[in-house]
Amino acid sequence: MRRTKPQTWGGAAAAGLLLLGLVTACSSSQGQEQASCTATPNGVPVTSGVPAGPSSTNLSQHPEIATGYRTSMKPVRTGGFAVSTANPVATEAACKVLRDGGTAADALIVAQTVLGLVEPQATGIGGGAFLLYYDANTKTVDAYDGRETAPAAATPDYLRYISATDQTVPQPNARASGRSIGTPGVLRLLELAHNDHGKQPWKDLFTPATEMADQGFAIGPRMASQIASSATDLAKDPGARAYFLEPDGSPKAAGTTLTNPAIGKVFSAIATDGANAFYTGAIAADIVDAINTTGSGRTAGLTTTADLAAYQAKKRTVVCSPYRSHDICGMPNPSSGGITVESTLGILSNFDLASMKPDNITGDSDAARNGGKPTAQAVHLISEAERLAYADRDKYVADSDFVPLPGNSPQTLLDPNYLKQRAALIDPNHSMGHAQPGDFGPVQVGNGPQQPEHGTSHISIVDKYGNAASMTTTVESAFGSFHLVDGFILNNQLTDFSAQPVDKDGLPVANRIEAGKRPRSSMAPTLVFERNPDGSRGQLQYVTGSPGGSVIIQFVVKTLVGMLDWGLDPQQAVSMIDFGADNSPVTNVGGEHPAVNAADNGDHDLLVQQLRQLGHQVSVFPQSSGLSALVREANSDNWTGGADPRREGVVLGGPPS
Questions:
Q1: b or e along 123-155 (b: 16 or more beta carbons within 10 Å of the residue's beta carbon)?
Q2: Is the pLDDT of residue 61 over 70?
Q3: pLDDT above 80 (res 58)
Q4: What is the pLDDT of residue 65?
């Protein structure tokens, strides 16, 4: 390969990457970038000063802080193996594992542990994850559930009241108290997946993160922005204050070198003794002490060392549904992601979306590379389908170990005849605003409020053996509960439960908190297969997923529609405007995208105007997806990938054949 000039992000972003010692080693080919295991981001500068919607200061209702948009990114072409994460340092580390003969399961461990260092606001070993893993040898898909659990002492009012006798809210609030922290699950998940699919020794896979923690790494621009936004809350925890803030309380800036010897010791212990080193012994005791602390007036949680020792990751049955000429496979509950994505697509299968392609998607213009601009007709139709799917999700989907789905199967909600009936409820000329859930008889569950995952990341991997992994990983809100213990952030995942155990009619809410239960999620790691003429599952073709809270479902749907219905390449599909709706009158049209005129709340943007004429309440608040998509080339072992321009991610892999 010939060397080209390093592509820049500009400003603090460029400075942060230079301090990380990354260089470019990519060359162009037919409008694409050829990937190697060393690269800087393949876009041009992140935009700044993006106009925000009217609720831009209300970060509690939106995923992580928006940090701009890298315009005109090109798809990346790889050969044999490929990986995309939300941070170039983690992508490079995982890519080297694949280059050296590791499997996707091996690379996941490296990606996750490094991500916990370079984007602790989003992920880490103090959180949880969902993983879909395709085994090319057996041609099977395993679904791994590493979701956090509520402690054995949790009561229905655990998040509402300090106690039965003290019916005041946990202090300083439910999120920042010990009540929000679930038993972490990601390490048990990684261990289970590695036992099933790993090739390289477990102990060796913690070396990259351990060395980085001990030797130091630079704060990246996105992490720096989130530290600044969360500084007041981080200051309330002594460990978080010392790690993320300067002695005077100001946030540490991009380019600042961090070392984390505490987590280095944790990684070393786990490398030697397995996940048990985390779930038992001194580390487990430290976690419990941090959860149960009452320092700074915080309400303690009720987690015990027995809760940690008892935690198990679970293998679930993957949820797969047909869409056009493909099979979509997603994560089952307690994640609602797979069911809701597939429900939306099943509704959309009754419409001719191919005739509603975005404008400006051909050629090599900036507009085309950014995914064009979807039509109002398409955004309306997709948003209405999502409203219907979210209505069922909100009422029926929870941890099925506690609350069974209608018919005791996801397929009840995904039945093609049922979804055809749901599709008939869509008015092509006006938004329904709020959809009613389907009627499955006297199912004794009520509706619970939406709870978002703010601090989340996603990893997409394919290895040279044909295996693939799609894993979404989270600490819930940005910096989780703000509790830092032994160098890692503890999640606030229990706030994904409905704090109200019953609805307005007195019916128990499906996603109410119960001892040992896993809160409902929206994470939607996704694998897409070709369907053979006889209806059987064919070759793996797409690997995708995203962070982004309850709007993950919308991000994944728009990406799948972009690739499967509109013929977009993976970079165009993830770069395209983020749009969609949950079950509310508000339809999102991401104002960070250069094709959206977000000034004056979008009043001058034609797409926004047309949607409002159709009855949508349109928000142009900047979206913070972190999509990745890997697509297999026809009759080839080459893959083409795209990374979300809204975050720092890149696609890397082997040289294409």
A1: bbbbbbbbbbbbbbeeeebbbbbbbbbbbeebb
A2: no
A3: no
A4: 78
